[in-house]
């Protein structure tokens, strides 16, 4: 009887076939109901299977019953049994004849296209024979049934393929010769294909058969050489399959395959790293070298890098310390591969990689590293110092190490120079370490040498590292950098060219813009040079491109834009000495751009710098606003003054009393910037508030009609916001600026009367009068006089002069 294909068919079913001898009743054990293998006889002459009757006697003993015959219930005096040798021989002869007949029947049935039931019955017989008598595997080979069973793997029936796999499993189990026969041709490739294409039961049978084959060392290479075998097996071990047996068998198969070093490497490339790591830990020196070399070139994700560092990091560091150059090279390359992620680099730091790494980098003498390996050491060190892990980088700048780094940079080639510069980039990113780096650069006068790398064109990585380093140094060495850039030909132009590149916004562009932004804003020579190389035109083009969405960039856009705005703002500091600055700002309507940038919400520095630039532009408005030409008086009017009338002039600026415009005279009133600046007085960032207040204070400067300026501020609801700034008592700088502006506002009598009623304002002015610096106290005193909190003695005492 043939059952379902998934395994419910019994291999022990009794089914009489033509050519198969009938089973005699004497062959059947009364207890198991199966043909006996080792018949034994009791004292009463009854015969049973040895294993079955011994189990029966044990049950009698366990329950306290006397031993008896299972058939007759007759009590026995002894549990001794006698082997039925004649019956056993007869059964063996019968079994041999029947097995031969069954194998012959199977050979006739195992053809593609035959009836499926006949094929399944034949496969069942083969399994029965192989399980019952191990020696009959030779008979299977003689009938070439293995090859015929293999052909059944090509069947269109899932049932047949599944039973063929099960049958092959039984046939080859423990039989090396059968395994060799099975592995001939493309059978292993077919089994591998089943790992991905068969249903769960078929997949389980395929992986079980591969596991059995993998027990043979000679077949491991065969399995590993099949395209896709290892990646599929590794995938099965890491899957969330509900079939635990598949996962277990795949894992055990891979364990058998680990005997091959080459397969271990292939497994590692598919994500199964532990075998390779185990050989680095426990293998021979030759094996460690081979595996570490492979690890150096292996593509690893971040989780894998952490695993490698945790498992073999110490072993790799030990290899790096060895006197054997091939071992050191293999270890360095492996460490380089895993040092580029924060998590793994942190592990390497904790296991002590830094001391030997630095020693290798700087050591010159017997058995020192060649330059190509010093480059690898520098790369590892650069990776480590540039990670986000907050370790004490200051320890790396002790013992003249920065000087040694600078010396190496001056005396090596571009590849290692790039990595050494990246080391300095990491060190200058650390507040504790940057001070030491700056000191060493100043001591050695190395800034000029470092600036020269900006002009490198054939090595983009080297140029990027140099720009990033100079950017990090610029807050601490702005004057030295400005001098170096002006003193060397082409360096400033190279930085401008980097900023102007027509590519998606890059890290290098953001760093170059940040570097130029940090240079002294009042350095007139630098501003003139930037004008000469057309920097400001290019910067305005970039700023507008970003504002209008024409220039794209995700990570570095905000930093790049901030740097551009800061560079552009420096031109507003050059009005007094550079006529081209005014001309440029007029031509490109710079004032309008800065007013638009005031609305860059969430970008505090851009808003602050824009307000500062607008202050400079507004202060220049006084010099640029002009009085219109008046028409000459009539003839009579020129003779008789009583007949002349003063001409009526319209369209004059309320604050500057001349002809103003945003583009030509940078007038904040004409540009409707006052309301936007007032809006920023509520900003959370004190620096933004201070810059905005300074820009507004330009409307109250000496030489202007203060009353008109106060009126303009009042119309924009600015007075209330300015008084709030004063009473909130933020920073000392902001307080000084607020006191100055409030004193100007209080010169208007009706406002002073109203403000005198505000106790908070009075208290803030009293505090400034008592605790401010000398100038602030003077201004606060005047403000208190305006609101009658201090008597104005100059108004009531006679002039004593």
From TrEMBL:
SUPFAM superfamilies: ARM repeat, RING/U-box. It is an enzyme of class 2 (transferase). Residues 22-101 form the U-box domain. Its EC number is 2.3.2.27. PROSITE patterns: U_BOX (PS51698). It catalyses: S-ubiquitinyl-[E2 ubiquitin-conjugating enzyme]-L-cysteine + [acceptor protein]-L-lysine = [E2 ubiquitin-conjugating enzyme]-L-cysteine + N(6)-ubiquitinyl-[acceptor protein]-L-lysine. Keywords: Repeat, Transferase, Ubl conjugation pathway. This is RING-type E3 ubiquitin transferase. It comes from Brassica cretica (Mustard).
């Amino acid at each position: 009887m043939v059952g379902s294909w998934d395994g419910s068919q019994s291999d022990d079913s009794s089914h009489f076939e033509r050519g198969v001898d009938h089973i005699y009743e004497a062959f059947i054990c009364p207890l198991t109901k199966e043909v006996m293998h080792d018949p034994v006889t009791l004292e009463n002459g009854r015969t049973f299977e040895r294993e079955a009757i011994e189990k029966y006697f044990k049950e009698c003993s366990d329950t306290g019953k006397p031993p008896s015959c299972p058939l007759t219930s007759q009590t026995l005096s002894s549990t001794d049994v006698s082997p039925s040798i004649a019956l056993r021989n007869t059964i063996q002869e019968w079994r041999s004849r029947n097995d031969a007949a069954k194998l012959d029947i199977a050979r006739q049935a195992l053809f593609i296209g035959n009836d499926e039931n006949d094929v399944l019955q034949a496969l069942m017989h083969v399994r029965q024979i192989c399980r019952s008598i191990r020696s009959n595997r030779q008979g299977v080979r003689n009938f070439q049934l293995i090859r015929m069973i293999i052909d059944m793997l090509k069947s269109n029936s899932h049932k047949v393929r599944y039973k063929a796999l099960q049958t092959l499993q039984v046939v080859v189990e423990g039989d090396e010769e059968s395994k060799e026969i099975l592995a001939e041709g493309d059978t292993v490739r077919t089994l591998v294909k089943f790992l991905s294409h068969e249903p769960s039961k078929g997949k389980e049978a395929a992986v079980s058969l591969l596991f059995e084959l993998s027990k043979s060392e000679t077949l491991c290479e065969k399995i590993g050489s099949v395209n896709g075998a290892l990646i599929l097996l590794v995938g099965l071990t890491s899957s969330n399959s509900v079939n635990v047996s598949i996962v277990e068998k795949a894992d055990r198969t891979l364990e058998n395959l680990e005997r091959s070093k080459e397969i271990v490497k292939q497994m590692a490339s598919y994500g199964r790293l532990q075998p390779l790591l185990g050989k680095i830990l426990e293998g021979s020196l030759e094996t460690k070298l081979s595996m570490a070399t492979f690890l150096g070139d292996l593509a690893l994700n971040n989780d894998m890098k952490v695993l490698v560092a945790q498992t073999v990091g110490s072993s790799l560091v030990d290899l790096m310390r060895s006197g054997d150059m091939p071992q050191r090279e293999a270890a360095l390359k492996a460490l380089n591969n895993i040092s580029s992620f924060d998590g793994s680099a942190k592990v390497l730091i904790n296991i002590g990689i830094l001391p030997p790494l630095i020693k290798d980098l700087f050591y010159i003498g017997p058995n020192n590293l060649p330059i190509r390996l010093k480059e690898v050491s520098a790369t590892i060190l650069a990776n480590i110092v540039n990670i986000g892990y907050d370790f004490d980088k200051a320890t790396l700048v002790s013992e003249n190490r920065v000087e040694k780094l600078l010396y190496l940079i001056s005396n090596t080639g571009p590849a290692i120079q790039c990595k050494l510069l990246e080391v300095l980039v990491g060190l200058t990113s650390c507040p504790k370490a940057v001070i030491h780096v700056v000191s060493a650069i100043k001591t050695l006068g190395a800034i000029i040498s470092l600036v020269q790398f900006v002009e490198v064109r054939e090595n983009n990585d080297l140029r990027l590292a140099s720009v990033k380093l100079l950017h990090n140094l610029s807050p601490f060495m702005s004057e030295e950098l400005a001098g170096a850039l002006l003193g060397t030909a082409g360096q400033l132009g190279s930085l401008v060219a980097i900023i102007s590149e027509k590519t998606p916004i890059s890290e290098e562009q953001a760093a170059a813009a940040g570097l130029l932004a940090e240079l002294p804003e009042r350095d007139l020579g630098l501003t003139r040079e930037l004008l000469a190389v057309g920097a400001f035109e290019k910067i305005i083009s970039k700023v507008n491109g970003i504002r209008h969405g024409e220039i794209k960039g995700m990570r570095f856009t905000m930093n790049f834009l901030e740097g551009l705005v800061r560079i552009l703002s420096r031109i507003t500091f050059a009005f007094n000495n550079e006529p081209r600055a005014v001309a440029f700002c007029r031509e490109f309507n710079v004032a309008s751009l800065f007013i638009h940038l005031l609305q860059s919400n969430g970008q505090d520095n851009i808003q602050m710098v824009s307000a500062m630039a607008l202050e400079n532009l507004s202060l220049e408005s006084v010099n640029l606003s002009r009085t219109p030409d008046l028409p000459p008086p009539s003839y009579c009017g020129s003779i008789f003054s009583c007949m002349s009338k003063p001409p009526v002039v319209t369209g004059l600026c309320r604050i500057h009393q001349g002809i103003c415009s945003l583009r030509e005279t940078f007038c904040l009133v004409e540009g409707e910037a006052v309301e936007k600046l007032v809006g920023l007085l509520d900003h959370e960032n004190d620096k933004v508030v201070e810059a905005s207040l300074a820009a507004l204070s330009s409307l109250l400067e000496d030489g202007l009609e203060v009353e008109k300026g106060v009126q303009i501020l009042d119309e924009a609801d600015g007075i209330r916001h300015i008084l709030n700034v004063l009473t909130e008592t933020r920073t000392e700088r902001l307080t000084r600026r607020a006191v100055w502006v409030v004193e100007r506002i209080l010169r208007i009598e009706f406002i002073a009367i109203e403000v005198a009623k505000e106790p908070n304002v009075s208290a803030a002015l009293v505090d400034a009068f008592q605790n401010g610096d000398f100038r602030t106290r003077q201004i606060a005193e005047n403000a208190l006089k305006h609101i009658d909190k201090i008597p104005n003695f100059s108004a009531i005492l006679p002039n004593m002069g």
